[in-house]
Amino acid sequence: MDADLQQMLALPAYGLYLLIILAGGIMAVGSASLVRALLGLILTLFGVAGMYLLMAAPFLAFMQILIYVGAVSVLIFFAIMLTKGPDGEAGGEEPPKVGGRLVLAGLTGLVPAAILAGAVARFAPQAVPLKPETSLFKLGEFLAGPYVLAFELISVVLFAAMAGAVLLGFERRKGK
Amino acid sequence: MTALLANPLVQLVIALLALLGFVGLNGLVLVWMERKVVGFIQRRPGPFEVGPHGLLQPLADALKLIGKQLVTPRGADRPLFWLAPILSVMPVPLCFLPIPFSPLLTGMELNVGVVLILAFSGLNVLALCLAGWGSNNKYSLLGAARAVSQSVAYEIPLLLTVLCIAFQSGSLNLNVIAGHQSGILHWNLWVQPLAFVMFFIAATAETNRAPFDLPEAESELTAGHHTEYSGMGFGLFMLAEYMYMIIICGMAAVLFMGGWDGPVAPGWWWMVIKIYAMLAAMMWFRWTFPRVRFDQLLNVCWKWLIPLGLANLLATALIMKLVG
Amino acid sequence: MATLGQTIKSLWSMVVGMKVTGIEFFKPKLTVHYPRKEVDNLGTYRGHCDLVAREDDPLTPKCIMCGICVDNCPSGCLSLTMHVVGEGKPRPAGGAGELMLAQEVILPGSIKKAPPTGKAERVLDSFRLNYNYCSLCGLCVQNCPVSSLAWSREAYLVGRSRQEFEFDLLARLRAKAASSQGVKAA
Amino acid sequence: MALEANYGMVGDFYTQNFTTTHTGDGDTLILNLGPQHPSTHGVLRVVVELDGEYVKKAEPVLGYIHRMHEKMGEVKTYLQYLPNMGRVDYLHALGWNWAYVGAVEKLMGIEVPERAEFIRVITCELNRISSHLLWWGAYLLDLGAFTPILYAFADRERIMDILQMVTGSRLTYCYYRFGGVSADIGEKFISDLRAFLAQFKARIPMFHELVTGNMILRGRCVDIGVLPVEMCRRYGATGPVLRGSGVAYDVRRFEPYSVYDQLDFDVPVGKAGDAMDRYDVRVAEMVQSVRIIEQALDKLPEGPFLNPDLPDRFIPEPGEVYYSVEGARGKIGVYIVSDGSPKPYRLKLRSPSFSNLSLFAELSQGTLLGDAISIMGSLDLVIPEIDR
Q1: For B13, B69, B296, D255, which has the most beta carbons within 10 A of its beta carbon?
Q2: Nearest chain B CA: its distance from D15 CA (Å)
């Protein structure tokens, strides 16, 4: 693909993904049903996957979809089905308290955005040309080389989370 | 004109359109084929009245389904309820893109084609969840819960077996993987028979086909997640099921059977023959075996397939290290 | 090791099962394609009852209007009317019409014996069968003292309304006789 | 959008008065299996309380096809009631035919010619095979195997063709009469029957190959729904359900009626009393029925098929009578009280499916939903027989 066309398409694609991410975010925060909120989250994850594509990292993009959309959010879905809202029905959320939710949501959204925007404005990075796709071998070498500690740490965190979940599950069963 | 055709974007659009046609046509053929296979196994002729040997029966069925009223159950979450069937078919053409029918007949050659297929076919389970949740029906909800545990569990052995092949070929590009196996003796099937068997079992479970059709287990959950769907809502689910069968069989053909390679005259027809042979085997399973119970289904996965898959992966890695 | 052997054995059971369906796949089909082909055992099918004509007169049934069939019918779907020649006015035979009032019909002795010959003769006016209620038990046919009833072999009865299944067997008999005579004449 | 608890629908008596086993935060799901459900085989409804996939409590709700068969007996004459018998258990109609006819014969002291007795044995056992075949197919259908039922139907179709020759109908037979049967069996019947038996004996190994040894089926049946003898006694279970638990009780053997004492046959029993044992017992019973029919065909005497000295009207003396036969599902009993009028004063039908269904509530407790379906199938319920 010639560079001009790439340039021409990149901007609308960026806009589209941004829109998807924002729409997903608003949906996640704004809907009263947990399942719909989850749908918003999934939409956001899709948008992020698109951003990865834009950065010429299709492997990451598909992994994002495979792991986060295909597995993690499905598990969240499972969790929603197992829990109950205040009305005794699964999947409901606490009714909004005098618009406080909107304010809180706005704050959590805007504060990091403001910080990030400030940082970007201050240390504006030079626009770099899009690099060709990083090969998987490179990726693997990095993970097994310089970043091996971080990589292992992440797996330890995941293991701890899993063990905790199992523990909680058993506690609950015993309590019955 | 040639310049325009050379443009990858144009190629992509053409590929997508062609795939849509392929999807529709194959859906109809598969429905007909399944009914004929079950008929013959049960010593009946199967569909016979519409068209010669019932060939037009799926078309008539599709027309009927389209013509039916779409009913939304009371208390259903309407948008989610109708999003689900659409979501289940939407990724299908995307999943077909990286499958090479021949070196030239490839929708889009991707370095990470395998991952793309696995990622987007995983969306189907989301559709089942939404269907189960949105229907406001207890049977559907149980079906959705089953679909989730089943698909999350069986994705692991599926990935493990795919990883074995990726180790061997050193690539996630389906064209490259297929290219490595020219000549029937070089098929991965002979090198990795265990992986092939596990892949096929996991694929059957991932596509919710009998004997692993727990999410719709009609004798327990009436129709599971699509209990409440009428007309084309149900039609789309069914279409998606058949489409995922083709995709997964196409993947198996490329990963284990050399794709377009064949004993004589290699070409896309070999790919079609292999896919349909595996589909026939899947139908044969379905119409022979009883359904497993839900805990047995998960036991097979966690106690057999995953350990075996891990062992197989380890062995593959070791051998690759020693040999390569 | 034993478990491994067990596992292989159970996996083999799947192959055996598939072999069975695989063989059946190639066996000839058992279905009878209805409109093109019909089943060949309708000769033993017992449909609703039908009147049997006298040997000497194809237009008159053997019926002696005793009412046993009416008495025995579990669903009360038979009714017959007749008149006595000589008196000239029609009257219902043995509990006909209100057969369901079983008391009147069923009491011993309510069965009308054949009239003594020579005097007034009974003539059958109609012999109605409400096939909607018939359970095809065959009690009417088997209890007929003069074998005036037989089973029809009609398995392919279709209709659009209930009324189409309220047969007058006498009319049926006559129509059949007429048509067969017509065939003979032609 | 929060889902409301119910949408103005209050449910019927059974849902309103269903007491859950789980007290507290209501963690369980109450599910109505039926009245329209693929595996209740008719209009049976079971209210099930589920904890995840586990059945906490199951409560069968009866009466959806209650047709007042017993009351109908009181308003019809003895003969008129006969066709009803084919409709109680439509799968083993001749068993019910026999129980009722036998009761009336006992009440009135009617003699049955020997040939008629043999004809009854032959046709009743043939009907038993067809009933077991249908159960076999339907049970596997419950377990998710679609093909066996069509193989079973191929054989069942031949049985129905053979029975049609003498009974004239294919399902709800009304063939036995007080003092005999309504039609004699002819040469064609016997030759066709012999051909069928030879062919059927060759088919049974095929059935075994297809599913009996299958690991999935064994996984679904072995150790599922283990039924202790003590529980069978409490609920009054009979037939293959009881024999599956190891009690060799068969009316044909322990209270021999008709000519069963002249025939040599085994009473197959199970050991553990699980669903697999009930399965094995039924399949073995089909083989035994074949044996019985072959012996009966060999011993078939000449003579009348209906007692020639029957009274014009069937009006018994005042008295009461109980007659039981072995049906495909268990002990079929008919109890008649006569007051000397042409109609029974009181008529009571003992249907085996009713007792067998009563087991289900206790048996399915704590099992997985899939197992509960397997257990229900293994009890071989015919819903019209339960409700009568």
Answers
A1: B296
A2: 15
